[in-house]
Amino acid sequence: MRIRSIKPDIWRSDDFTSLDDFGQLMFIGLMNYVDDNGVGKYNVVDFAADVFASHLASDAYGTLQKITEVFGSLSERGMVQIYTAKISGKDVNLVYLTNWDKHQQISHPMKPRFPRPDADSRPLLKIAENCGNLPKTSARNRGTEEQRNRGTDIPPVVPQEGDGEENIQADEIHVEADAEFKQFWEVYPNHDYEEAAIRVFRKVRHRRQDRPSITALIAGAQMLANSGTEPQFIPQAARWLRDGGWKNKPKPPRRAELPPVTSNAMYNAGFIHDLGQQPTQDDLQIEGIE
User: For the segment 257-273, what is each residue's pLDDT rounded down to a tens digit?
Assistant: First the structure.
């Protein structure tokens, strides 16, 4: 996050004033989020953690969903470009504020961290419900699947009775689930038994009924991370996924309990105070009582 001096004319510009209150707040947050070149990594979870931390604490799922919607709106209006560029040989999803030079003036810009979009950049054609940078499952025609698998050794995954798995090739399921799981695992606090968590995660993300979005899973994991509970007391991810933990509502913060030493000290102080209120032998003699 960076300190910015925003030009005053932004408050009268057509693109900015056409946004609702949340959209305007998010656009200003983007100016702090991107580098001096107007470019930042396109990752909804990272952006939300930097700009909307308090919103995540109160309503993680709703916040991530709203941010994703606003990114889509900004892209449609031409206010941002969301694209993929090669950085150190790897594909990285980026977001660029198209009117950066219009709304922002940098006196001594730092060296750009990320490239602006150019002819070699590939636009992200669809901003999905998956926090902006993960692949999304799409249903395919069975005949197309059979043609694709003809002559290969990898058969399509056939769901067992009652398990509700999608009829998708095993290798494609694993590639997509592993990419999504990495995002989920970075947020989920308890990192015990990762392999078991991966297996359950794949099943949950590719079943027919009651299939959660990756946004819902990450939002639920973020809620646990914000709860203040020590990681070892948080359920293992595999169990949390099997039990539908992402459906849980945020718990109210636990009241801090006084440690035993403090409680004993308060009791002793009260006892001494009560003892001081009792009449002494001299007091009884003065009053004629003995």
Answer: 555 555 566 666 666 66
